[in-house]
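User: Can you predict the 3D structure for this chain?
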Amino acid sequence: DLVQDVFQKFELAAESRHIALQADLAPQLPAVRADLGMIERVLSNLLDNALRYTPEGGAIRIAIRAVGQELEVTISDSGPGIPPELREGLFRRPFTVGGARRDGGLGLRIVHQMLELHGVSIHLVESGGQGTTFRFSLPRTPA
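Assistant: Here is the predicted structure, written as structure tokens:
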């Protein structure tokens, strides 16, 4: 299972910082049309970013569910969030949060480009100023 494989890569780092990794996967998820290697890289980059900015004792959650003809993937963290003034160029250029360079730049640009190759876009979801949430959807394989 792709999500479990990706989670395993981050388990030790999360454990050492007392960050809970949570997977909320709907049962019997449908197949999708996607390059699994690229989607694994997308998930890895998003989880890596989340781990980097989630404080000790925080949580990172990935939720996957079928919505209409798509599989919706949501990754949330309990970090500081991204200030409104930095959101516009989020997938196009590096930026800083609280004086520290947040490499949303390269990691998020790669995520954005890989999903674009699938005809899909990624969105920063408004989460009421608490943490950061990204969402994208992949087309289901026709039955």
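The mean pLDDT is 87. Residues 12 and 104 are 22 Å apart (CA to CA).
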